[in-house]
Amino acid sequence: MKRTGEIVLSIIGAFLYALMAGVGVFMIWLENNRDLVQGTLQDASEQNPDAPPINMADLNNALDFMGNSGTYLTIISIIAIIVGIISILLVKGNKKPKVAGIILIVTALAIAIFTFGGGILAGIFYLIAGIMCLVRKPKKIIYE
Q1: Which of 3, 51, 100, 144 has the most CB atoms around its CB within 10 Å?
Q2: Quick one: which of 2, 20, 133, 139 has its CA closest to 81?
Q3: Other C-beta atoms within 10 Å of 13: how many?
Q4: Domain residue ranges of the chain, discontinuous segments joined by +
Q5: pTM of this structure
Q6: What is the CA radius of gyration of the chain?
Q7: How many CA atoms lie within 13 A of 4 on its CB side?
Q8: What Cα–Cα distance (Å) separates residue 34 from each residue in 46, 60, 74, 83, 114?
Q9: What value does the mean pLDDT of the chain take?
């Protein structure tokens, strides 16, 4: 039995998790380039004199939070990508589709919970692929 649908959905989910990892890396980059962020915000406030002044302590706290969140998001996304690749290998050739389905469903739910809903879009693809792995049964050939 071909499992093209499950594989395609898993690849799309892994790609979306890769985009999430990219967002996490960008957040880490912003934390490491504080001078650039501060300079950009100061330039913007100078161009708009009606804007409230920038509180540097709040900005530093926000950048710290972004760096920590970015690290967390990147690690979680990389784990989801690795698990997705493992599931694709299990599904390919119809080796162990039930195991792959369970792994995909658990991963989709866990990542959606761990990212407080941030990974739900990619998780939907993993969830659908996992359900398809569990529900689809091989066709029985009847010899007469």
Answers
A1: 100
A2: 20
A3: 30
A4: 4-135
A5: 0.84
A6: 22
A7: 1
A8: 18, 8, 20, 34, 27
A9: 89
